[in-house]
Amino acid sequence: MIERIHTTKIKDAAGEEHQYSCVSFGAREGVGLGLKIMNVVAGPIGDFLSGGGLDIEVVQFGEALRDLPARIMAMGGFDLFAEILKQTRREEQDEHNQGKFVKLSDDNQMDRIFAGNYVEFGRAVMWVIEVNYLPFTADGSSRWTALWSGLTPSSAAPSEAMTKTPTKASAIESAN
Predict the structure, then answer these.
(1) How much is the pLDDT for 68?
(2) Sign of the CA dihedral 139, 135, 3, 173?
(3) What is the pLDDT of residues 10-33, one digit of tens each?
(4) For residue 42, how many other CB atoms are within 10 A of its CB?
(5) Spatial distance between the Cα atoms of 107 and 124, rounded to a whole number of angstroms
(6) Which of 76, 39, 61 has its CA nearest to residue 156?
(7) pLDDT tens by residue, 27-64
């Protein structure tokens, strides 16, 4: 089995960058999780596109997303995000100032890392969705920036750390 490893740097709420890595979902897991994600966003995206598409006003965009929290809760709430991030690691400095990657799915790491740090949390979730589900260019970088900028007002665009850092994917042979 070939695994794709993706890396990026994401800024936290204080502006500090953290190195992230994730392994692409396998086909079975990726399809199952993709269906959950589509179930969450399909209604709001449909409302958005039926309301004028890319020329929609900010108020209409907000109205299209009004049911999003209920949809997220129906699909498991925080557990949905934990499932999205389960193959993701974040680099941290140990007591000797040495970098080590911490798996977000281990021992309440998500609660510890993202407590009061919801900006980084949202960026990490969107990055994992990006590298697993959005189209890529021939050089392996994502088209997320172009997609995002076409759907939102420029003031609401995601941070530079989330969109401008090219996603580098390398294929490695798994021991499985």
Answers:
(1) 82
(2) negative
(3) 998 888 899 999 999 999 999 999
(4) 12
(5) 18
(6) 61
(7) 999 999 999 998 888 766 666 666 555 555 666 666 66
